[in-house]
Amino acid sequence: MGKNIFQKKEIIKGVKSDLENAQLIFSTDMSELNINQLNNLRNGLPEGSKAICVKNRLLKRVISGTEWEPAAEVAQGTNNMWIIINDDVKGTIEHFNKWKKTYKKEEGIKAGVIEGVLYDSKGIEAIGKLPSKSELYAQIAGSIQAVPSKLAGTIKEVPQKTARAVKQIGRASCRERV
User: CB under 8 Å to 123, separation ≥6 — which residues?
Assistant: First the structure.
């Protein structure tokens, strides 16, 4: 039995809410999946990521006029599942790929949208290989910490090199006198 108008409005409201803070969404085919496989995918997703199954017509209503509108090109056919990622893009895509290998699924990521641009599966896979925000922050922090250390080492070397140079000049001048 189909959903009534009030249930559909609730679905639309929920999906809109999910997309408000999303960084990336991507689609996959769920036609050959059973409930246990779906639950394993959902349960392993990092915090801030969500897997939803929503009718294409309802999804198109939600994304109409938003940065997610390019996803309408992928929202065709039946059995689409959408992964909505708020924070951990890399972790979510890694989990999805591990899950796909575990269940030997041929169909992977169909396509996805990030910052209003539709990417094919290869583009989304490439985005998933980029460092996460926390990894970038750690790299920046490490670089910032390295500057004072290198500066201190350089400053410490200057007097030592100067002292050695003065000693050598002193020895050379002593030899010339003799």
Answer: 112
